[in-house]
Protein 1
Amino acid sequence: MHTSLSEKFGIEYPVFGFTPSEHVAAAISRAGGLGVLGCVRFNDPEELEAVLAWMDENTDGNPYGVDIVMPAKVPTEGTSVDLESLIPAEHRAFVDRTLSELGVPPLDSGAEHATGVLGWLHSVARSHVDVALNHRIALIANALGSPPKDVIDQAHEKGVPVAALAGAVEHARRHVANGVDIVIAQGYEAGGHTGEIASMVLVPEIVDAIGDSAAVLAAGGIGSGRQVAAALSLGAEGVWMGSYWLTTSEYKLGSASAEGPSAIQRALLGATSADTVRSRIYSGKPARLLKTKWTDAWSKPDAPAPLPMPLQNLLVSEAHQRIAASENPDVVAMPVGQIVGRMNEIRPVAEVMDELVKGFDSAVSRLDSFR
Amino acid sequence: MHTSLSEKFGIEYPVFGFTPSEHVAAAISRAGGLGVLGCVRFNDPEELEAVLAWMDENTDGNPYGVDIVMPAKVPTEGTSVDLESLIPAEHRAFVDRTLSELGVPPLDSGAEHATGVLGWLHSVARSHVDVALNHRIALIANALGSPPKDVIDQAHEKGVPVAALAGAVEHARRHVANGVDIVIAQGYEAGGHTGEIASMVLVPEIVDAIGDSAAVLAAGGIGSGRQVAAALSLGAEGVWMGSYWLTTSEYKLGSASAEGPSAIQRALLGATSADTVRSRIYSGKPARLLKTKWTDAWSKPDAPAPLPMPLQNLLVSEAHQRIAASENPDVVAMPVGQIVGRMNEIRPVAEVMDELVKGFDSAVSRLDSFR
């Protein structure tokens, strides 16, 4: 399974795997794909620096990338303290009441309270870029569309291509005009930030709209070789997968341990493809999340409207921390796509990759038999 | 392009084309697919009898099918007069006010007022089955899931296979248990009645769930050979296309004429993939429609909640008639899928079919080059 894009990156398979876990990202790169490390959780550039140094050592010399979260328009800046003052009391009261109703305990008095994910801020995302460009990264992807022109130039000066997510043709055209090298066509079924056009329609639409001016990766709903074949049928040069790695053995975030999967993983393993919602409650922009008692609470009539980015994430960041600590699979706050219905066992990354490649091959053989 | 399903039906290509137009249905069958005539618009069985007699004569001996609308659960029965009394005055007032605000004139005093589409009623759908089974039909499809067991038996006694739409795995399992032969996996992106799971996820999920007990057609988002290849990659044995035929030259419903496309077609030609909404306002169940000033009005805060099936369709049937007569592309009431973004010119059915077949072939050649 190879395309011009996998050749360009010098990787075995055109499988781009986004994950917040460096262990998963490194395993994806070692397995022949391109592991792309999500940086948004690193409030402190030094933390990212240490993790990327680890990536350099643990990817067998294979390429890897980073994913930043940089809105095209610069949002309200400031320290978390400044921003906190913009959050209405009604919203705070709703969060407190909901957590209490859901039986989510407060943090231990000793625990460090979350300051919110500052990675949503422009200045922090820029620090991620600065840090990453000092490592041997092969890609910078931006989860919120084109980064600013000077960030693209900065990456290009170091010979690093830039990818950007697009949920509609007009996003893709804008990215190309801004100098983006790879457009990630993110379908409605995808986890995290997503638009309303499903992959079946969106991918060929974006491929046709941008022609040869950039490569297209298909994102959303991919977790098997058949789905990779479908994505490449639609004109993509590769796939971008995020959700599917959350149930790999290497994923240890959310307190997965040797004793077994974490609460989040147990929730994901039990979910069907119908158990997601697309909502603004995670970040302020529409994102697909696992449907749980937490997302249900926000869709009740008494719930306030979510705040704009980055305020909503600041509002719920301590809640996310409390929810994570409570380790209750019924109350989880987690972006995931409709492919969660196929995430039914914990497997090593290499085994997932092997199935993608073999499944792709069988799917193409089957198609050949139809000619 | 052939699969075991196209062989079973004795058709050249596994392309099942649903359409309310007998001219389009016949053209699809003549072009090597299987034209499936939507029956819901025939309130009078004799009208359907005449149209199927025409189909028998105009399909060059090729097979064709019919599509009925028969809810699994028997809804409120009665004449339209009985049912009309169940519609709240508030809803009628909203419809009248909205049409007036949108500048949709009343019907000419001479015009026959619509009695609602009685095809939504169980008894009328049964009459469609009775009429159709006296013609050389090759398929009965039900747009609302499994028809009752005795209807399936009635079809099977005449050697006619039964297909049913499914928007989720549990629907598909139920259909198979009821004796349905073909499951149509209808993704979120599809026009008309549709669920929330996109084709990329839904199709392989249904294929895996039902195994060899029934064939699977992929529906939703298909209008090019690349999309056919994607659907077959996902494990389907063929495709079910509805929206795409609305902009064929043979489609004359909605007053298309020799002078040019109808108001509905002009609206479709101008729409992008983002110009649809999934709403209960057409039939009472969630259906994807072209986004127009009419659908916008129903999503405003002052709009009442849509009524259950079949009341909602009775409520809006005269409105649909008035809207059609007004021939204003901005105020159209029309089910269509996200593929509308690719429906940009009026073309003959045979040309569409040719592109599907050639496009499939190129897509598979491209996939082969990736191995």
Protein 2
Amino acid sequence: MKIAIAQLNPTIGDLSGNAKNILEAARKAAKEGVRLMLTPELSLCGYPPRDLLLSSEFVESMSKKLHELAQQLPTQIAVLVGTAEPNPYATSKGQKPLFNGTALLEGGKLQKIFYKRLLPTYDVFDEDRYFEPGYQTNSFTIKSDSQFKIHIGVTICEDLWNEEEFWGKRNYEINPLEDLAELGVDLIVNLSASPYTVSKQKLREAMLGHSASRYQTPIIYVNQIGGNDDLIFDGNSVAFNRTGNVVCRAKAFASDLKIIEFDEQTKDLLPTAIAPLPATEEEEIFSALVLGVRDYARKCGFSQVVLGLSGGIDSSLVAAIAAEAIGAENVLGVLMPSPYSSEHSITDAEALVKNLGIKSQKLPIGDLMKSYDRLLGPLFAGTEFGIAEENTQSRIRGNLLMAISNKFGHLLLSTGNKSEMAVGYCTLYGDMNGGLAVIADVPKTRVFSICRWLNRNREIIPNNVLIKPPSAELKPGQVDQDSLPPYEILDDILERAIHHHQSTAQIVKAGHEPAVVNKVMKLIARAEFKRKQAPPGLKITDRAFGTGWRMPIASRWLPPNPSN
Amino acid sequence: MKIAIAQLNPTIGDLSGNAKNILEAARKAAKEGVRLMLTPELSLCGYPPRDLLLSSEFVESMSKKLHELAQQLPTQIAVLVGTAEPNPYATSKGQKPLFNGTALLEGGKLQKIFYKRLLPTYDVFDEDRYFEPGYQTNSFTIKSDSQFKIHIGVTICEDLWNEEEFWGKRNYEINPLEDLAELGVDLIVNLSASPYTVSKQKLREAMLGHSASRYQTPIIYVNQIGGNDDLIFDGNSVAFNRTGNVVCRAKAFASDLKIIEFDEQTKDLLPTAIAPLPATEEEEIFSALVLGVRDYARKCGFSQVVLGLSGGIDSSLVAAIAAEAIGAENVLGVLMPSPYSSEHSITDAEALVKNLGIKSQKLPIGDLMKSYDRLLGPLFAGTEFGIAEENTQSRIRGNLLMAISNKFGHLLLSTGNKSEMAVGYCTLYGDMNGGLAVIADVPKTRVFSICRWLNRNREIIPNNVLIKPPSAELKPGQVDQDSLPPYEILDDILERAIHHHQSTAQIVKAGHEPAVVNKVMKLIARAEFKRKQAPPGLKITDRAFGTGWRMPIASRWLPPNPSN
């Protein structure tokens, strides 16, 4: 029996467009003799729909569209489609209003619906906000053309992420996988919308391979692909035979349609095409960010982008990502030198423009700085040049970029990295301006390594950008290291504090200076008000400063001072 | 037996400061012969601590502080203190890592700890993200000086919000109130952190009075007070006798310590001082916003604020709120007229400054506008004056205000109202700039009614501000109604769509033009990117554009077009 993985790229809320994509994939699969097609979690509305789920009009439209789709599908193919389904017992039993469901569409009708059992409510996930967990083990039986019956267990994303033997702990009280194994299904399918993080595919494959082999049951995992605001879904759908080996893998960071054969004799999946994984983490992250930019622009209706080019490494990388995402001809880089800008800030930016083949504009801001100084002069009389003046430069640039964005309908990309965002080394309403913060989850040291990877064959990021000391150039002779610890140290502290939830004592124990650790902790806490107003930043780590980071601003918590 | 309500104003994460406030209240209460003191939900760390709860260092510090506090308390008084408590079974049972608890401190020790059973996970609440629900009915027995024993049922906030008979539906499967009634407790206490919304106190009192009388059990409800980012906690702690009548009410919008007598003969609470409720919704909202501004400023370490004064009604109201919150002498209003500004925009703003007694500065922006035009001229050649030019004016003003904020350490208050925020009639990085959006949850029609209430005794908001047509004055002769439906109509549509989740068909049925409804729906959806980057806005309704509003940006959902 042929089973298809439809690795789709839905647009959130675009019920008609998403249904059309499912229909097209099903028609193509049916032509290839496919009996069952799998689509990702909530494939009809796209994941995550968030508070659209609070609109009954939205939920009703989805239900209507689902039934329409059932009637349009080719008769010979059954399709699993992700949809939100009202919970009829919500108010009588005091339950949540919806289920996160997967509908089995066949023969023009909705035949059966399965409910997600484990609802992630951590990091970027808020499923308890909307959904009641399903309480039943989900399975159905499908007949092949040769009248052979296959018993298929259905799981939705998180349902497969509670295998105690693999994790060494339980994340939820029940394990749907155990229930399905007890039931003795022939095959387990998993319909997912699993956001990308660095190297996550290796973890997924280790976990799923472990489960397939432990329960001696083949598993097909289908993931959504595409960028949805801050989240990037990497696809990488993958199938395992009952010994836990990968027998099929769909593309990373692209839509795909894969057909797998379930062998009726051996009751196992047969090997087929296995798309390779990216060779390095740098390549993987770059591809993820390219997809994130491309989809955010497309799904918001932009075909061109604009960004400021400082000649520094952050804006250089973002320009390279943008050029790859939507074409160099659609990228406008704006050089905005001030009297404090170094000579190389211009020549490096110009070299980058040339290397990438993007468009550029030069708008020197010296006169505008003087105009602000003139206007504010009487009020600021007797004060020293400081943060206010530095930030004004950054904000002038932010205004110019937004004027261009508003005038020509270009999406403004902001270029700050995660290290800056963590410690607040960025200007609110200045360089933080943008519709999308492309590398807001990429630490500075990683920005460097990605740029070195980009240059592996030829110079794309001008070499001087890679070797000069990072500087905001907001006052004469300024370099980042005047205000911050070296990035190797800063990034290690940030990694420990943010990703590993280490205490200050643990970070000090790892070899960092107590004074430096204290300073960094204070900077992180004090920059919360900036992060609150940041544009969505593409998430590539397991803890980004986005929808999964929920910190109070008016707060006085600081970890106790560590000592040596 | 004397029982005290300590209506406290904690700062999130300030464990030492919060513990000190609890200790001071307990010492004061003990002197008055109080046997038991009640404090609000999570009183030790403040509510909501959000992702601080993910730091084990934070949770450990809290536990340490709790035990310290137990030892410091006067011996004759027992105190219920809110704290987050690690769940020892988290990883073995697959449960959440913490409980939302209330600790009974007495005799120098932690005697007992009670866990919250109903965990709100909707709107601004994310409790399933952190907490495992408690599974046990919570009660303890306390002896009075006369050796009389009182059996007290303990509930935490949401635990009392699932009375089916009152709501006409269940919100959760269990009802802790029923369990306590079955147990036959003498008194139920409810330790809350219940955020303010307009008229919510009436709802609370109706619900709690109903429960007291239904179960023939007196109830003491203790609420937190204070502003924490977007949330305002109104206090209004209140006690009911067993017939469901209010016998005591603490202040609204202020810290308070109330002492109530539990009569050992009648096993009921005796009447004592009942603080009055605000006379009008306008007074109530004004008081809430004053507290929100005062606490946000104080808890973030600001003693002065700055805001732009356009001569319009929004900035006038915000200035009045700020003056009340932190003193007129600490408020700086900045007038930034452009060549498009009307004469009255200046004279009205000056009249306001005089009426309030605040400080002011005038910074005309004409020269800066010319500087931007000059710089952008070649790039914009051949284009019409439009949104780009309009927004640049707003952004120049935003820059000037931020320069003043950065230079003098003033908190910048933004002045946009909810109607504007809903439809995107505001400039990102312009008039949206600020650390706190004071009236972002107040619809324009309500802005007018609050200003009329403010003027009830004498003119505070200049009369001309109340009667002239609202205008952004970003081009000659512009008024808001060129772009938007009249505010009475707009606000009614917004109320239906946002608060009542009405479908477009329902809104049209209520008498609105289909074309207008469609337009408003589109505007709401398209402004999501602006709201994403807005400062925290003080919440006064049950659906604000803040932490409780979680919408996708790159989304294509629009309700189906309604027809007549």
